[in-house]
C-alpha cells in the first residue's frame, strides 16, 4: 500500500480549510495583542516562528519595522511572499550569530504558538538569545502556550465556538474530522512540549528577566496561557 506524502508545513496551513481559520485567528490575536500591549509607530518588532506571516502582514503598517523568522524554510518563503509589499517587513536570519545589522534591537519579540514545538533545552537557549536581541525596556510575549492540563476536548469545543462567532462553523465541523490525523502526519517527529507558567517565569529569571503571566491568553484558546517577559 502506498502512503500519500505528508504535505509540507506551510502547504498544510495554506490549504483553503486552514487559510480561513488562520486568517481569522491572526486578526483575533493581533487585536488582543494590541489591546493588551499598545504598539507605538516607532516600535521594532520581531515575529519569531512567524508561520505564513499573517500577523506580520497585520502589524507591518503599524510599526517602524517588523522582522520575521521561522525554523521552517517554507514558512519563511510564505511570509516573504505575503508581506513583500510592506517596506517595514524584513526577514531576520537567526541562524547567523549577529543577525541585526543596522536595524538595531527589538522593542517587542512575539512568540505565538511556538514554544510547544521546542524542547526544554531549546527554549532555554532561545530565551538567552532573545535577551540579546531586545532593546532596553523591550518585551518578549510568549503566547498560546498549552499547559500540561490543557484539554483536547476543551480546545475542540473552543475552536467550534470561535468558528461559530466568526461564521466558519460549517467548515470547521466538516474539516475537523480529518484534520487531527493530517495535522499529526504533517507535524511528523516534532515534539510537543507542555509548559507550566512557572517554568517560563523561571527561565526568564535565569536570564535576569522579569516575567508576568497574563490574566488571559492572547488567543481565543482560553485553556492556554501568555507570559510577558521584560
Ligand atoms: C502554530 S504555528 C504559529 C505561527 C504563528 N506564530 C502564528 O501565530 O500563527 C507554529 C510555527 O512555529 C514554527 N516553529 C516550530 N518550531 C520552531 C522553532 N524551534 N523555532 C522557530 N520556529 C519554530 C513552525 O515552523 C510554525 O511556523
Concise account of the structure shown:
By secondary structure, the protein is α/β, with parallel strands linked by helices.
**How does the major sheet shape up?**
7 strands, mixed
The amount of helix comes to 40-55%
Anisotropy-based shape = globular
Whole-number total of structural domains: 1
CATH class: Alpha Beta
The stretches of 5 or more residues where confidence is low (pLDDT under 50) are none
Architecture per CATH nomenclature, i.e. the level-2 architecture: 3-Layer(aba) Sandwich
Cα-based radius of gyration, to the nearest Å: 17 Å
Please count the helical segments: 8
Domain Methyltransferase type: 46-140
InterPro entries: Methyltransf_12, SAM-dependent_MTases_sf
Protein name: Methyltransferase domain-containing protein
Pfam family, one: Methyltransf_12
Amino acid at each position: 500500500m502506498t502512503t500519500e506524502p505528508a504535505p509540507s508545513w506551510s502547504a498544510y496551513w495554506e490549504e483553503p480549510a486552514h487559510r480561513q481559520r488562520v486568517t481569522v485567528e491572526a486578526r483575533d490575536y493581533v487585536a488582543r495583542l494590541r489591546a493588551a500591549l499598545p504598539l507605538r509607530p516607532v516600535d521594532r518588532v520581531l515575529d519569531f516562528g512567524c508561520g505564513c506571516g499573517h500577523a506580520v502582514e497585520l502589524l507591518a503598517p503599524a510599526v517602524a519595522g517588523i522582522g520575521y523568522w521561522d525554523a521552517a524554510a517554507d514558512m519563511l518563503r510564505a511570509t516573504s511572499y505575503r508581506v513583500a509589499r510592506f517596506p517595514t517587513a524584513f526577514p531576520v536570519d537567526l541562524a547567523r550569530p549577529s543577525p541585526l545589522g543596522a536595524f538595531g534591537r527589538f522593542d517587542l519579540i512575539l512568540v505565538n504558538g511556538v514554544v510547544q514545538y521546542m524542547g526544554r533545552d531549546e527554549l532555554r537557549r532561545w530565551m538567552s538569545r532573545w535577551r540579546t536581541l531586545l532593546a532596553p525596556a523591550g518585551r518578549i510575549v510568549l503566547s498560546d502556550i498549552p499547559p500540561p492540563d490543557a484539554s483536547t476536548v476543551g480546545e475542540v469545543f473552543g475552536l467550534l465556538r470561535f468558528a461559530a462567532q466568526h461564521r466558519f462553523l460549517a467548515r470547521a465541523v466538516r474539516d475537523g474530522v480529518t484534520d487531527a490525523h493530517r495535522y499529526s502526519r504533517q507535524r511528523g517527529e516534532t515534539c510537543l512540549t507542555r509548559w507550566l507558567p512557572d517554568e517560563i517565569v523561571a527561565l526568564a529569571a535565569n536570564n535576569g528577566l522579569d516575567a508576568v503571566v497574563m490574566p488571559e491568553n492572547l488567543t481565543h484558546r482560553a485553556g492556554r496561557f501568555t507570559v510577558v517577559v521584560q
